[in-house]
Amino acid sequence: MGADNEVNAGQGSDRPLVLDSYGRLSKKPDTGELEKVEDQWADNREVIAEIPNAVLGLELADGMSAWRRGARRKDWEKLLARVESGESQGAVIWHTDRLFRQPRDLEKLIELGESGYKIYSAHGTRDLSNPDDRYALRIEVAQACKSSDDKSRRIRRRFKTKRKQGRAYLGGPRRFGWPGKEALWTPGPGESEEDRPDVAPEKLEGEREAIRTGTDAQLAGIGLGTIAAEWNAAGVRSVNGNEFVPVTVRAVLERPANAGLIEYEGKLVGRVDGEPIVDPEKFKRLRALYAGRRRGRKSGETGQTYIGTGILRCDCCGMRLTARKQAPKTYPDGTTRATYYCAKHRRGCGKVFADMRAVDNAIMLFTVARLSDPRRAAAVTAARTRHSERLDAVEKEITLCTSLQAALSDRLGRRQMTLEAFDAANEPLVADLARLTAEREELEKVSPTGPGQAASKDALIAEWTADATTVADKRAMFLNALGRDRMTIAPSSRTGKRTFDKSRIKVIPAAELITADKE
Questions:
Q1: Domain named Recombinase: which ranges (predicted)?
Q2: Is the preceding omega at residue 197 within 30 degrees of 0, hence cis?
Q3: In the CATH hierarchy, which fold is given to the domain comprising 201-291?
Q4: With 60 as the cut, is the pLDDT of residue 7 above it?
């Protein structure tokens, strides 16, 4: 059996052991106190310092639950992937309870242990190569799983009792319009979390009044965007201090608790004590109003409406532009004017507005110029050929490395080679795979897009202006010409004659975007 702090799977080699440190915010098994991830990492570092020839890899951590079957523990998955790929030779955990509470997670660990990888623990000793220890560990994990199941059952029962008692607020962050602790309070000198005050009564009443007026406004046909703007102008903010947008206004208004109703999984299970915030009959009408709204386009509408929405971006904040009509304003031909703009209600800066017809004309000229440029078409073809040839070569090398690793693993499993020999042969393969995989991702990211053959300008213009060409067709042509580049629109200077300035439109090459992302 291994050392007191070791859960291992066999003997190591003289080369450095890269060990990842894993922690999970949880309670101590023996005392029930919350153990911080930072403290677990510190203990794990001490364990690594005591292991001969070991070095720290990544420090990984996940949230509270190792029990919920649907929960994804991204850092736990990353830990497994690094060990399986050979980037690390094992892991250090603070306690087996941090690692898993589901038997299937234990089996994953045992599979790694049987492959020769090492798992160390800051508390407890288990040797995964020892059948007796594997048996004992399986029992411990089964008990931990049952303990979590029992706890979940008790919590559900407690919540059910609270709902029957008329309590709609079961814990967690305070909800808009409901009493609780003030989320925006910050402790001063000598103060702690225990000193956090309740939300002020006048603020609470202001929130409740906003819910009442918002409900009345929706029933009167006033839009969510208008309600959000009115709330923001009046200084009404979310529980966390954010301005409202239409989707958050609706989320507040459609809570059953506003009408004194307690629902669970869509069913009425109780009623809140005291006076409801809004009249229950009004809430029923509001819910019917929301239920009657069909998602998607109105009847008779087909296809895209605007060429540039979702493709054009704001030059200030980078958000995608949307569009809207400007009735009753019209163009000279009588059609309603429309504008591309950066929408504040979609977390944009709201600084960019541009006439749709002027922008669409600029998009057409850009599309025709690009798709008819023989130099660009030749450059795309040449670059695509170079990328394709190199990408094919990289794929072949990756396949070769993977097949070699599989052959080595098979020989190790058949005990036709020692673990030391496997490590020596696998190490350069792991390094090559990491390098080749990174190169493949980079090649796929910068692979040129666009036509490999230039088209006639006249033919392109005729196709763009043809009656049979839909907005979706024009968007496809625009995207084909734009490729991986980005088109942005800058704010207007607001000086001189109110005509559209074409210099506001910028095309940013994909290479600059990649460089900016890396920085």
A1: 189-296
A2: no
A3: Hect, E3 ligase catalytic domain fold (3.90.1750)
A4: no
